[in-house]
Every structure is written in structure tokens, then in C-alpha cells.
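User: Some background: our group keeps a shared notebook of sequences we're curious about, and every so often someone picks one and asks for a predicted structure to add to the entry. Today it's my turn. The entry only has the sequence so far, pasted here. Could you supply the structure so I can complete it?
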Amino acid sequence: MGATVWILEELAVYYEMLVAILIPTINERENIEQLIPLTLNLLSDKHLNGHILIIDDASTDGTPDAAEKLDEGKGRIHVMRRQGKKGLGSAYRDGFRLILEKGYDGAVEMDADLSHNPAYLANFFQLLAEGYDLVIGSRYVPGGSIPEWTTYRRFMSRLMNTFVRLLLGLEAKDCTSGFRAYSADALRRIDVMKVQSDGYAFQVEMTLRCQQAGLHIREVPITFVDRHRGKSKLSSREKWRFLKSILNLALG
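Assistant: Of course. Here's the predicted structure to add to the notebook entry:
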């Protein structure tokens, strides 16, 4: 009987947690019209207490309007409309600021291009409820995979992750993963508004700050797939900016 009561209490905490799913967008209408229903259905089926926050950077294809239409007035989807393309790090900082002001218990970062499967959200929510501060959806722990990538591309990605990990002393295997969850307490403790990096370097700096703060970090395996619609936002210029940002972090 005691064990049953304990399990029920744990489930109550799990379901009561209010978590925001942050999805930055630039011209992702076709993708979010698939992603949002999949995510809402998952939240409903698993009885997860979550809302979606679309952080849109001046889309011209009607992305924010499409997102609001999918909500059907139920208050499960919120749209932040930003002027101009301000970058991934800026989008997440604005999103984190809002969810902390509104009293959410945690936040999930998720790409809009369907490369991140919403089915993993239940595990993220559960681990946040268990007390983890940062949960990383990892391609590079046992069980993780990138089935659509060539051998060369997987090798280069692993090489870059290894380089970053050794340079900064990071313990996480996939420190650039953009599919992850944070507790609200973790965002406050690392003072998220002072994170300066952008792009994929933003994920690295967030991981570094969490490790330096002694927070509880957990990596869980995911299968990552490439976008099937739209164009990647990662240009050669962004790759050079990433390297510059990592070197700046290494220099303190």
C-alpha cells in the first residue's frame, strides 16, 4: 500500500508540472501544421500539462497565424511575434524570460522542422519531475542515432562535439543538441538572460553554465531526422560564428 501511495504522489507531481515547449520559427508554416497537432495529441494522450510557445522571427509565410489558428481558442498555444531575424539564442532568451514571468515549472526547446519527435516529451517531463535540471535529447549516447546522415557527416558532427567537449571540459556527449528541457530553477540559477552565445553555440554555453553551477544533468537517447520541408537555417557564416563563440567561451 505504501509503495502504491508513493507512486501516485510521484505521478501527481509529474502531471501537475506546467511546462512550456519553446519552438523558434522562421517560415515554418508547413512544418508546424504537422508538428503542433502531433505535440498537442501527445500532451493529451499522456496527460501532460504543457503549452506551446511559438517564437516567430518575422515569418512571411503566415507561420504565426497558422499556429494561432491551430489552438482553436483553447489557450494551449501562444505566439511571440518578433520583428526581424534576431537569432536562435535571442529567441530562446525571450522565451525563457516569458515563461519565468508566467510561473512555468520548466521549458523544452524543440525545433520546428520535425527533426525532433514529440514522442520523447513524456520522458522529458518525467525527468524534470524527478528533479533533473537539464535533460538533453542526445544523438551520441547508447540508443541515440541519426539514421539519415552519411557516415562522413556523422563523423564530422562527432568530431566537432568531441572538440568542444575537450576544449570546455564538458561531460555531456551531445552538447549541441537543440532538443532539451530545463527546470525553471535551473534557468534562474544560471542567470539565463546573461547567456551571450547564439546559434548552436547557445546550446553549448547553456550546457557549460549548467555544469559549472553543479546542476543535475541527464542525457537520454533520441533518433534525430533531417527536415523534409523548407531550408536549413545553418549557413557557412553560422558555422564560423559557432567556432568563434566556442573559442570565446574557452577564453572565459
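Suggested note for the entry: The longest helix spans residues 151-168. The first strand starts at residue 19 and ends at 25.
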